[in-house]
Amino acid sequence: MSKKGKERGILKMRKEEKGITLVALIITIVVMLILVAVSVNVIVNSDLIGHAEKTGDAYRNAIAKEEAYNPSIGNGKTLEDYMKDAKIVEEVHNWKVNGDKFTCTCDLCKAHANGDSSNGLTVEIGQEIKYKAERDTTGAITTTITAAMSGHTENQTISLTAEPTYVVMGVADINENGTNETLLLTITKPEVKVTLKGAAAYNNGPTEINRMCRELYGKDARGMTIEDVNNCLGYINPKGIYYDKSGNEQTANNLTTKLSSLPIWNDIKNNHQTPDGRNTEAALGEYPLDGYHYSISSTEATEARKNLILASDTGYWLASRGVNAHAGFGYTGFGPGAVRVGKANSNYGAFSSVGREGEGGDELGLRPVVSLTSQIPEVVGI
Length: 382
Ligand SMILES: [Zn+2]
Prior knowledge:
Blueprint: H1 3-46, H2 48-68, H3 79-85, E1 96-98, E2 101-104, H4 107-110, E3 121-124, E4 128-129, E5 141-145, H5 147-150, E6 156-160, E7 166-172, E8 182-187, E9 193-195, H6 198-217, E10 221-223, H7 226-233, E11 240-243, E12 249-252, H8 265-268, H9 281-286, E13 293-294, H10 303-309, E14 316-326, E15 331-340, E16 343-345, E17 351-352, E18 363-365, E19 368-372
Parallel strand pairs: 11-14
Antiparallel strand pairs: 1-2, 2-3, 4-7, 5-6, 7-8, 8-19, 9-18, 10-19, 11-12, 13-16, 14-15, 15-16, 15-17
The structure holds zinc ion.
The site of zinc ion has 5 residues, from helix 4.
């Protein structure tokens, strides 16, 4: 082969090589186009971009929520605040009632100075407890009720001259969880008196009695209610009392029967002055007949219970109220409750629908009830 022939051969070879490369390139491009087409198809069919967009949105939302989160929303407290305020819950009492005795065998009572490491602590109706009220103020202990709130002609300021003596009155399931966790104390006799009269006595009596008891006897105190009296004396299922035209005592089945539903409604509806001042027949008819009264015979309650609740010679207001009715006189009576001359009254005459106000004995004592839920102070007389 000549030199030129050789060169031609090489050139041809190169041309042939070039030709293969081009074909390969075209094939590669075709393959890539197919791959792209397939990939696009896959992306479109699987909504991959949609998924990516949604994931992005979820991420952005999470960030936004994180940034918007404020632990103090709603109650102004952070978790740290709650932890700071948290107290270790003390042992819960569970007083078992046996006649006039109450026994608790919780660890707190077993460890009590007057308790017993196996039998716990036993207290008794009328037994003294060395309770001393937590007070906001020092010095003279006084409270005032305005004329407007009492119905009396002038403001009344009453004061305690000495620390009261507290005695056991009962036990109660204050939070209604089935456990008698609360020891109830009262004083032996009312120490201060207050006058309550007329519509104001019915309207404001229970609230004002509770307030005055708190101010005089400390923040754990409130006024005694007809329910306290009933519980201590064992008086169950009270019924509203009314009198028919002949003056015979009748009862309504429960304490929620409205006056307008009574058989004597026609006899009482014409005298329709009401303590709320509406003074209409319709307004009178809405009041429930929840007034009743009773005394207790010697077989119904122990002497200790009767002495504690009924034997006080002065009488005292109750921080609860009621309504009763008398067909013969055509009147409806409204008042705070009171215990007086050995009788418990869920309403004691203060206002009448015929306009008679402040019936006798309107200056009566205040009698506090103190609830002790945890530490029991020293017991006297064990
Ligand atoms: Zn206990």
